[in-house]
Design a protein that fits this description.
alpha+beta; four-stranded antiparallel beta sheet; two-stranded antiparallel ribbon; 233 residues
């Protein structure tokens, strides 16, 4: 029984249509099929050779094509789940006007960029944020799922709340009694005392909770989060 065959040139056209780049060129197709720079270069060569070869694809070529289409499709789905807003943005804490809480503030030379960033965070209704300490270690993961608060609103709330596990660091208790021998003792610190950077991501509403649960598990004991979120089906 003779296999139903298509020319390789027709296959290139069908691949562009399937990957929703019908108006794209051969380089666009190679970039979509190649998930690494090495694979993209390989696909540029393959596509150029296909146009000169009208024979059928070998079994190996078919299997490699299926593999790369699957990887490319998965990459596009992932991009739809999570979109980077900012990563490792430096912050400082300042006392609010009323003196009752702390505000997230940028370094002086980054105020304009921070103002633009805050506007975007205020418009984002579903997303994930991560606070880091001065060494770049994640110390808190949070989310907003679009119920009542924006990503920026949830970040400000987490920055001030005392419900998360307090971190223990060693310090000296400086009492007024000069005769007391100073000893290093573990002392509790809160999130706003440690947070020096943050990252933020817009996420798909149906994936936000599970992404947060995964990150909490990935960072394990580093975090000050009080709860270990369960995955949703």
């Amino acid at each position: 029984m003779k296999r139903n065959q298509h020319t390789r040139a027709k296959l290139i056209h069908k691949l562009k249509h399937y990957l929703d780049i019908s108006n794209g060129n051969d380089t666009d197709l190679a970039n979509r099929l190649g998930t690494t720079s090495q694979k993209r270069n390989s696909w540029r060569t393959k596509i150029a050779n296909w146009k000169r070869n009208s024979g059928p694809l070998s079994d190996t070529e078919i299997l490699n094509l299926i593999r790369d289409i699957t990887e490319a499709s998965a990459k596009e789905i992932y991009k739809g789940f999570t979109k980077q807003i900012v990563e490792y943005f430096p912050i400082e804490k300042v006392v609010s006007r009323g003196g009752k809480k702390y505000e997230i503030s940028p370094p002086h030379d980054m105020r304009q960029r921070f103002n633009d960033l805050r506007k975007r965070l205020e418009k984002t209704k579903t997303g994930i944020y991560i606070f880091y300490d001065s060494s770049g270690r994640a110390i808190y993961v949070g989310k907003t799922e679009g119920e009542t608060d924006s990503l920026w609103g949830r970040m400000k709330g987490s920055f001030n709340q005392n419900q998360q596990k307090s971190r223990k660091i060693y310090g000296v208790n400086h009492s007024s009694n000069t005769k007391v021998v100073r000893k290093l003792e573990p002392q509790s610190v809160q999130l706003h005392e440690l947070a020096k950077y943050f990252s933020a991501y817009q996420t798909h509403p149906e994936m936000t909770h599970n992404i947060e649960a995964l990150l909490i598990r990935a960072f394990a004991d580093n975090l000050m989060n009080k709860r270990m979120e369960n995955f949703k089906n």
